[in-house]
Amino acid sequence: MTDVIEKFNPIQIGLNNFKVTFRKANSDEVRTMTCNFFDNPTEEEQEEVLYYMMSFEGKDLVKVFDLDAKRWKSFYQSRVISWEVL
């Protein structure tokens, strides 16, 4: 697991699955989610995935695919407590 002081970094995650722990936007409830940025991207989509991850610079809201719920969700980078690449 990364040091909690280390900022959430989508570029380090790349095409890997990752686990993120964060505080929900409308409460102090803590959630942990196993996710990725695209649901199994094809080779053709991988360049788009990298561009998408680089677009998070300066943005707070991150859209991800929740692997357990099998649906798209989001969280705020500023509310991330910890994260790790799986």
What does this structure look like?
- The protein has 2 helices and 5 strands; from the N terminus they run αββαβββ.
- A 5-stranded antiparallel β-sheet has the order 4-3-2-1-5, with no helix packed on it.
- It has helices at 10-13, 46-54, and strands spanning 18-23, 30-36, 61-66, 71-76, 80-85.
- A hairpin with a 6-residue loop joins β1 (18-23) and β2.
- With 86 residues, the chain is of the alpha+beta class.
- It is globular, with a radius of gyration of 12 Å.
Topology of this structure?
Blueprint: H1 10-13, E1 18-23, E2 30-36, H2 46-54, E3 61-66, E4 71-76, E5 80-85
Antiparallel strand pairs: 1-2, 1-5, 2-3, 3-4
Q: How many β-strand runs?
A: 5
Alpha carbon gyration radius: 12 Å
Q: Taking all residues together, what is the mean pLDDT?
A: 83
Strand order, largest beta sheet: 4-3-2-1-5
Main β sheet profile: 5 strands, antiparallel
Quaternary structure: single chain
How much of the sequence lies in strands comes to 35-45%
Give the overall silhouette.
Answer: globular
Portion of residues in helices? 10-25%
Class from secondary-structure proportions: alpha+beta
Distance between the termini: 9 Å
Number of helices: 2
Task: Write down the secondary-structure element order.
Answer: HEEHEEE
Unreliable stretches: 1-5
